Amino acid sequence: MADAKPVTAPEGATGVLVLANGDIAWGRGFGAEGEAVGEVCFHTAMTGYQEVMTDPSFAGQIITFTFPHIGNVGANAEDVEANDPHALGIIVREDVTAPSNFRSVERLDEWMKRHDRIGLAGIDTRALTRRIRTGGAPNGVISHRADGKFDIPLLLRMARAWPGLEGMDLAISVTTETHYGWEGGIWRLGFGYDEAADAAKRPHVVAIDYGAKRNIYRNLVKAGAKVSVLPATATFDQVMVLKPDGIFLSNGPGDPAATGDYAVPVIQALLETRIPLFGICLGHQLLGLAVGAETTKMFQGHRGANHPVKRLSDGAVEITSMNHGFAVVGATLPATARETHVSLFDGSNAGFELTDRPAFSVQYHPEASPGPQDSLYLFEKFVGSLAVSS
Predict the structure, then answer these.
(1) What is the C-alpha separation between 214 and 229, in angstroms, rounded?
(2) Fewer CB near the last or first residue (10 Å), C or N of the chain?
(3) How many CB atoms lie within 10 A of CB 195?
């Protein structure tokens, strides 16, 4: 990031990133025109930018991709984790090129424009990533104006006025509004997504949606479950009336302590039923809060598809997909919780299980999308533990 803070765009600049500390990076805008303010983070995956953009866990965030060639395989209607993108925008090194992939149906920049999302190319993403690694994830504004005219003082005020993710409940803004039954399995090349499986004699998993990725539900179905989905605000009675054989707590965005105001009492009551429970990402953090642990805002967060996690039961290392800016403080877990996984990057908690009730959770994303499939066994572990109710 340059130390100079010009207020006039250099020749050819149609996009700009303005950070709350006054740093400015000029680039070339693409996608939709306008402004978006949020937390600027970085993501290290080399593939799966559509899945990343549509992951509801990225609500409130602007993603810097460390891989330079984003957009080179175009966009399609299958590689999404939600109907619309939840990330506010993306920052990339190279201009988006014409796609070169047989599955592409449109260019990434056209897809982003259609979904009202802003892109910024021509940025030194290595320098920006180093700034985030050393200074933490900053608040910032990304702006795209085809005429190259920017009100930098206004953008700076926007960046400084944004309150940040700490204390922010974003699950409420991305959750489903209604109860529905999930249909369909995983995607296969040449076949698309599998047809809905016969639900007869399948254990019934009730999933609480705090911002779930679709591939989680697909893998629950693949593991043998029937899946029903409820909103983040679902009550204990609304869960129990569906007669669940298992309960799933999904991923999602924002501060778990804020979402926990309404989610934790429900989870605590569900734990008392001793129905098996499985949580991922935000669901992992909420389970931690429900048993008395603490969560904390991370300095830079974990976002990528190559995060090594050690499984403490046997020492095996899983390469995982991660996307989180908050974490469970492992040292605060109660005596009835056993740590099962730790990050090999920084030693932070990546999973635990309860010793007095059938519940476990992981901080990472075993469903990947994008990412490796080392941890798909967790879906089989969970669904395989369920008994089908009569």
Answers:
(1) 11
(2) C
(3) 10
- The residues that bridge with 18 in the sheet, in sequence order, are 24, 141
Measure the CA–CA gap between 271 and 251, rounded to whole angstroms. Answer: 18
Separation CA 229–CA 179 (nearest Å): 6
The predicted-structure confidence for 159-216, as pLDDT tens digits, reads as follows 999 999 999 999 999 999 999 999 888 888 888 888 766 777 899 999 999 999 999 9
Q: What is the DSSP-derived secondary structure letter of residue 331?
A: G
Residue in this structure with the two tokens 């008994």, named with its chain if needed: 387
Q: Is 14 left (phi over 0), alpha (psi -120 to 50) or beta?
A: alpha
Residue tagged active-site, from 35, 281, 284, 324: 281
Taking the C-alpha atoms of residue 360 and residue 383, their distance in angstroms, rounded to an integer, is 12
Question: Cβ(350)–Cβ(363) under 8 Å?
Answer: yes
Predicted model pTM:
0.96
Beta strands of the chain (E only): which ranges?
15-19, 24-31, 34-43, 61-65, 89-91, 118-121, 139-144, 180-181, 187-188, 192-193, 204-209, 226-231, 246-249, 277-280, 295-311, 317-328, 337-343, 349-354, 359-362
295-311 and 337-343: which strand pairing? antiparallel
Two structure tokens written together for 190? 């040449």
Q: Which of 51, 81, 318, 367 is catalytic?
A: 367
Q: At what angle do helices 282-290 and 256-272 cross, to 10 degrees?
A: 60
Q: What angle do CA 76, 249, 332 make, to 5 degrees?
A: 125
Q: How far apart are CA 261 and CA 164, in angstroms?
A: 18
- 41 as an active site residue: the answer is no
Query: Which residue is listed with tokens 């996984």?
Result: 341
Tokens 């200074």 correspond to what residue?
135
In whole angstroms, how far apart are CA 145 and each of 8, 13, 30? Answer: 13, 9, 9
The C-alpha R_g of the chain, in whole angstroms, comes to: 21
The count of other CB atoms within 10 Å of the CB of residue 275 is 20
- Any catalytic annotation for residue 144? no
- Rounded to whole angstroms, the Cα distance separating 39 from 141 reads 9
Amino acid identity at 243: K
Q: Which two tokens stand for residue 269?
A: 């009551």
Bridge pairing between strands 118-121 and 89-91: parallel
The helix/strand count (H/E) of the chain reads as 10, 19
Cβ–Cβ < 8 Å for 347, 302: no
